[in-house]
């Protein structure tokens, strides 16, 4: 018994020694520094190249703080406080054991003092205590990188939450000695929540709202500093068969991200930015405010894959959405694509009335208000099929933009929305034969959404009022049969 216990202790002792031998802070502390280099930093979504050195070196890092006015969303401007001119701050890549000489340069045109707290640093404030820097000044401090991992850095000048909310965060990767597995593409993605005085979408330069920040009610939640920073022409790209790694950070200041890529499975995840324990086959990984994760996956099917915070109203209503566009040949075994689409209508079903809570918005007093309310209804109910700019989808959903069918007859248009539409219709010379559900919207909502559509995308500019909707409801002869 006694013997067994001592064996147990010996095993535990060996295990602990083993764990400390690899990537040990003690070893990194004493690792010899050979040579010197200046770090190359990158703006998101780019990442500096992997480190190929086998020794620790002295790395000189220059990071410049700039207060800049920039785009937060379409027509929405914001004064960002940045590490390097953009949000997130520039990506820093070093190796464990490196000695970093850190220069924090505060641009002379700035109005505020700033500092930096790097979560990769062991020392008071993670460097913040030694780096408070007035505009037109530069602070220097140094640190030895003792622990490998992917770390957040941020400003820690009071009010800290405000400096962070204005965009003062970024990532520093301390590569383990042995490096990370090789991949074909590495990208830098960082989430943040933004608190503007005006509601989401309000145009112009928006000041910061401390009240909304304290209430943790952001108007925007975005990747890489702006709505659309990873959409369309800015999407990440890869080819079928390649491996993709995302270094994902969350600057907050408040929200935890449920990071997910729609249509992908993460083959490898290094949770919470650690580099020693990898887990496999993960759908969604949690990234706390002030935290990070590394995710890898092989892209096996072509198409557009959507990066989201899976707290989905943040994605679809506040901006936390990005794209990875994968080109290449389809593999029908991995993914078949749509095999068929037939009308499904069990015996006895007529028109399906879409469940829709009635609107509580106050009645519109002017045409402009009607258009504004209508846009909200359009986005909530109609975009899925008719698309954001009313362009529709060929052979499936007719266009509302410059639609002759719509512009010819207002009463008919009202009936389409209130009663639904199916069967053959010709819109701009194209035949459609689909089903548009009837919408149980109030007269006010139908008037608003149609007025929005009539006043968008080259349509006739008509106004539809609730009394127009009411009188058309009374009329006999539905736009379509509902049998
Ligand atoms: Cu700051």
Structure described in brief:
With 483 residues, the chain is α/β, with parallel strands linked by helices. The chain has helices at residues 2-21, 25-30, 160-165, 210-214, 312-318, 367-381, 383-386, 404-408, 410-419, 443-454, 466-474; strands at residues 33-38, 56-73, 76-83, 92-95, 99-106, 117-118, 138-144, 149-154, 169-175, 185-194, 204-205, 220-223, 236-239, 243-252, 257-262, 266-270, 279-282, 284-287, 291-298, 303-309, 321-327, 353-354, 421-427, 430-436, 438-439.
Helix count, DSSP H or I runs of 4 or more residues: 11
Question: What are the low-pLDDT stretches, counting only 5+ consecutive residues below 50?
Answer: 1-21, 355-359, 477-483
Q: How would you classify the helix and strand content by structural class? A: alpha/beta
Distance between the termini: 83 Å
Structural write-up:
This protein has helices spanning 2-21, 25-30, 160-165, 210-214, 312-318, 367-381, 383-386, 404-408, 410-419, 443-454, 466-474; strands spanning 33-38, 56-73, 76-83, 92-95, 99-106, 117-118, 138-144, 149-154, 169-175, 185-194, 204-205, 220-223, 236-239, 243-252, 257-262, 266-270, 279-282, 284-287, 291-298, 303-309, 321-327, 353-354, 421-427, 430-436, 438-439. It has 483 residues and is an alpha/beta fold. The strands form six sheets. Strands 1, 2, 3, 5, 7 and 11 form a six-stranded mixed β-sheet that branches. Strands 12-10-14-19-16-17 form a six-stranded mixed β-sheet. Strand 2 (56-73) and strand 3 form a beta hairpin. The termini are far apart. Mean pLDDT is 89; it is low at 1-21, 355-359 and 477-483. Copper (II) ion binds at residues 81, 114, 155, 157, 163, 168.
